[in-house]
Amino acid sequence: MKTTAKVLLGVSLALLAAGTALNMVGASMGGREESKTQFDSSMFLPGTFHLGEGRGIHISPGRMQIGEQGEFSFSDTLEAALSPFTDLEVEVDLASVLVAEGEDYTVDLSWESDRFRLFYEVEDGKLKIWSEGQDGYGKVTDVSADVIITIPADAELGEVDISTDLGSVIWEATASAREAELFSGLGSVTCSGLLAWELEGSSDLGSVDITLPGPRKDFRWELESDMGQLSLDCEPQSGGIGDLLIAGGTGERLVKASTDLGSVNVSFS
């Protein structure tokens, strides 16, 4: 960038910050209604501006802060009752996901970051939850987020696909499904009460623990780990370093559990 362009950019951002600060002061001191309206709308900017590193001026959607950038964040929650759904898809970058048993179909999303959002929609019998990070921030590493879904006992589902890059995945609801896949890039995967014709739980770095609602004779199983321990009904079958694999069973239902680094256990009830 040429020197002239840098100067103009610096002046523009300085004027923007100064104007926003003055607007804030005027509105807080009881300024004219149009000034308050302009202040409210101007603070919801499409992105975040940082003037200076560390103790600088940081402007983000809905707020401005003078001080340490690390202190600059906000939290939000979204709770809603849902119409019944049969398919479930969760694909988030940074969040722990819990599916629990309740009286109704509900969703509870919460997050704490100025550069990350969670969204949901129910369409054609499918609940879809996803995350979005705002452009221009680089790698987001300071996010705290949770996804909680409740479904009634003995819910009948079609396809279940839950994936998070960073965070745990926990299933604690009695339900049936045609196919189910639970994945965490960095975090544990725990599943109890889900009966599927094909169930897969996996993690790149974390433990995988699946408890199946049925006797061992009803299932076939494949357990894998590159480094860790493989167990059936909490009894070790194999362990160490290398391509660890145990497979067995003659049942009609298939369960797969795998991790690159961590323990794997499949139990039957």
Q: Explain this structure to me?
A:
The protein has 269 residues and is mainly beta. 14% of the residues lie in helices and 59% in strands. It has 2 helices and 19 strands. The protein has a 5-stranded parallel β-barrel. Strands 1-2-3 form a 3-stranded antiparallel β-sheet, covered by helices on one side. α1 (3-28) packs across α2. The longest helix is centred in the first third of the chain and has 26 residues, at 3-28. The protein is globular and about 45 Å long. It starts with a helix and ends with a strand. Mean pLDDT is 79; it is low at 1-13, 24-29, 31-73 and 136-140.
Helix-strand pattern, N to C?
A: HHEEEEEEEEEEEEEEEEEEE
Proportion of residues in extended strands:
over 45%
Residue-averaged pLDDT, rounded?
79
What's the shape? globular
Helical content, roughly? 10-25%
Cα separation of the termini: 66 Å
Alpha-carbon Rg, integer: 24 Å
Task: State the major sheet.
Answer: 5 strands, parallel, barrel
Low-confidence stretches: 1-13, 24-29, 31-73, 136-140
Number of strands: 19
Query: So what's the oligomer here?
Result: single chain
